[in-house]
Amino acid sequence: MYRFFQLPDFGSDERNASARLIFSLAISMGLMSVLLAAAVWIAMPALLPRALMIAGAIMLACAVSVTLICRGGIRAAGVLLVFVLWAAITAGAVTAGGIGAPVVIGYVVVIMMGGLLWKDPQRMLITVFCILTAAAIALAQQGSLLPPPIEYPPAARFGVYLFFFIIAAIIQRVSALNASELIKKVQSSEIRYRSLLENIPVTTYLSGMELESPFQYISPQIENLLGYPRANFTLDPLFWTKILHPDDAERVLEQSRRSAQTLEPFAMEYRVIAKDGRTVWLKDESVLVRDENGTPSYWLGVWTDITNLKKAEEEQTELINRLTRRTLHLQTAADVARAATSILDIEALLSQTADLIQTHFECYYVGVFLVDETGEWAVLRAATGEIGKQMINMGHRLKVEASSMIGWSITHRQARIALDVGADAVRLANPSLPLTRSEIALPLSAHGKVIGAMTIQSEKPSAFSRVDVTALQAMADLVANAIENARLFTERGLLNKELELQNEELERFTYTVSHDLRSPLVTIRGFLGYLRQDVISGNMKRFNEDLTRIANAVDKMQTLLNELLALSRVGRIANPPESVPFDAIVWEALNLLSGPLDAAKTRVKVAAEFPTVRVDRLRIVEVIQNLVSNAAKFMGDQAEPSIEIGAHGTDSDGKPIFYIRDNGIGIEPQYHERIFGLFNRLDPSIEGTGIGLTLVKRIIETHGGRIWVESERGKGATFFFTLPPA
Description:
Strand content: 15-25%
Radius of gyration: 61 Å
Helix content: 55-70%
Distance between the termini: 129 Å
Low-confidence stretches: none
Structural class: alpha+beta
Mean pLDDT: 78
Largest sheet: 6 strands, antiparallel
Number of helices: 21
Number of domains: 4
Strand order of the largest sheet: 8-7-6-11-10-9
Number of strands: 18
């Protein structure tokens, strides 16, 4: 018996509840139909056959319904039970009293059963169907289409009412039990789910469909996560937008609006500001929940604290960046070292070093400065980009003092970083480099001496770290030593070249001296014999003539020896340099030459303005004397000999250029270099030793300048030379 009343599990609470309700109604209706038949037999024996037929039909339907339920046909069992009850009520009303029959009240029970067993629109259909059936019975009775009504005694009427009241009570009771059980299960599920939601390490929330809707629910974890009370989120619709990190707010709101429009799932990682000021990284994931009709209902979301994960990612990224930068440092250092050991030309070394550092470090600008010979200026010698080339061409230089990054670095012998050039008072703004936002200045030190500095500039603020400074300073020291080595190599090459030239000059000197000194001696020796004959013969006239020839030979030899002595002293014996206006030097030299110039009727034109130079005054006077006397000497048959002395701008190193121009016989181009060689005389018929221009060249080069000639045969000559400025 217990197994008969034990229903199987139908897989869902709703189906189990429906099965219990139909099963209870079937059993109750079967039993009550027997009792109803017994009551009719007692109260109205005449209706017993009809009552037995109806009771039998109901019992059969109840048995079939129970069978269907046990086999899983819950819906079919419910339909059968409702239909049989409707049919029994309708049959009773039609055959036993019409619309006034007490059995008509059973339609209410049918409607109750349909309302519990079915959903809309079936509920409405069964209600309308019962009403129409009752209306049809009433119309049929009014039209005398039904048998005459039966007068029910009160006891029979009470029995029928009691039957349906009991059925209704059973329906109500079973429904109440089912509802109570469902409520308990829902409450139990809610408790379980709430306990789960409030104990998992994430924050769960429910929010409305609109962006401005407040949170319908948010789990208590939010108070531990951010420190704000839950009420802030449920009462203020925009509270969550107020705690968004300023850098993330725009993109988060934009994505929220997009999800609200498209109803697509929302998934983002962003930052919020906690109540205590902390920055917390959240992973926000939410999906749209729809009701049973598919209508959007609310958003169900989860906030996960990923702050530690983000910190780990940042640390990993920082580690990778450090390793990458370290590799970059090593690669750059290797390339710079390779250049430093293989390039002996200073300009090429500096240029390649600047290019390597700019390429590897992705810098905006790299420049290399070297201190000039005065020690007062740092001159730009190598720089990257077109701007760098322009600054080099303009002779860009900085004072070696603490008013600039380069000057400060050289003065203090240490590196300096300007992470924000706008806030660094030491840095001088360079209008040619307007995009610079951070800068490093590194001293170039070799053998304990600072020979220059390197500037590395970036378009990004705070682009350099102390690690960068350490690596770059090592490269700067390497470059400085390479510069010194290149200088030594260059100086050695120059010394070797000078030694070769001096050996050549010595060879020519030996030949020329042996020839030019032998010639006066031969003359003297020959005329000494003539003097002896003149004395013996008493020819005093010839004696005096021969004596004059001997004196001239001695003077020639004396002149040659004096000029050789002067040439040998250049570079060894010098007066301290002084700042002197060049025109003062010119006039001093012209005063010494006034006699010969006047005698040759040579006109000299001197420019009105000259720069001031820093030179050995006496030596430069000697240069002007030699050049002017040479110009006067090689006038040829010029009717109006003239000489012009002036200045002609500056060279690429900033040294002023001077010139001495004549309208004499000129010099053919193939002899432009040869004339500065020792004892090189283009016209032996013109008086001279061939030492003068060699002496001039030595003096000019000793001052760090250079001299050259521009001339054509028959068109005069112009000698140009440079001297250091004051």
